[in-house]
Amino acid sequence: MTFKAPDSLAEQIAHHLAERIIRGELKERERIQEQKVTQALNVSRGSVREALLMLERRHLIVILPHRGAQVTELTPHNVKSLYALVVELYILLARSVAEGWQVEADLAPFLAIQRSLMDALQREDINDFVERSFDVMRAAFPFSNNPYLQETLENLLPAISRTYHLALERRKGEMGQFVNTFAGLLQAIIARDHEQARVVLTAYSQHNCQLVLATLAER
């Protein structure tokens, strides 16, 4: 039996604020004042300060000297930089799964996620769809057995999620594109075709990056 400690208060606060940023309720460059968060959530200022440090590590806020915390800006440069890094990490993770799976039961979590994605697509539930899409990444972690890769991706996940929400809110039809991409990726992994997995992930990353950039340009 594996013990899993409940999230700390600071982690819960960070998650609450992250959701508001990801969904656009807290706007770019908007200040997040410790005192207001403390009063609104009825928590200690120390817990809020710790939560803000977590959000800074996850690239959702920046803490400026004498000015406090504010929501990071989504710029074309930031988006391109994020996707250039993330695609290489995804490729590394996909290779680990392709090399590591041994029996069909090892692939069962991915098939279950595929069904969940289809269900979210049919309901046009963006929030659930984005969450399920990151389940793919987490299901792959045990195959890599690389804590540094896992930590890096987990810290980047909120920033990636923010771009997904931004694009999908305007173009819900893109959810179908992701489902097709995942199906192609799964086929490559089953075939242990590392190069095809790279091709699928690179094409999707470039497509999604351009989609986010186009959405930014329309604002």
Identify the notable features of this structure and list them briefly.
Four Helix Bundle (Hemerythrin (Met), subunit A), Arc Repressor Mutant, subunit A, mainly alpha, three-stranded antiparallel β-sheet, 9 helices, 219 residues, disordered N terminus
Coarse morphology: globular
Helix and strand content put the structural class at: mainly alpha
**Strands across the major sheet, in which order?**
1-3-2
CATH superfamily of the largest domain: GntR ligand-binding domain-like
Mean pLDDT: 91
Number of DSSP-assigned strands: 3
Largest sheet: 3 strands, antiparallel
CATH class of the largest domain: Mainly Alpha
Explain what the structure shows.
This protein has helices at about 10-20, 35-40, 45-55, 75-100, 110-125, 125-145, 145-170, 175-190, 195-219; strands at about 30, 60-65, 70. It is mostly helical and about 220 residues long. The chain has 2 domains: about 10-70, Arc Repressor Mutant, subunit A, CATH 1.10.10.10; about 75-219, GntR ligand-binding domain-like (Four Helix Bundle (Hemerythrin (Met), subunit A)), CATH 1.20.120.530. It has a 3-stranded antiparallel sheet with strand order 1-3-2. Helix 4 (about 75-100) packs antiparallel against helix 9 and helix 8 packs antiparallel against helix 9 (about 195-219). About 30% of the residues are buried. Residues about 1-5 have low confidence and may be disordered.
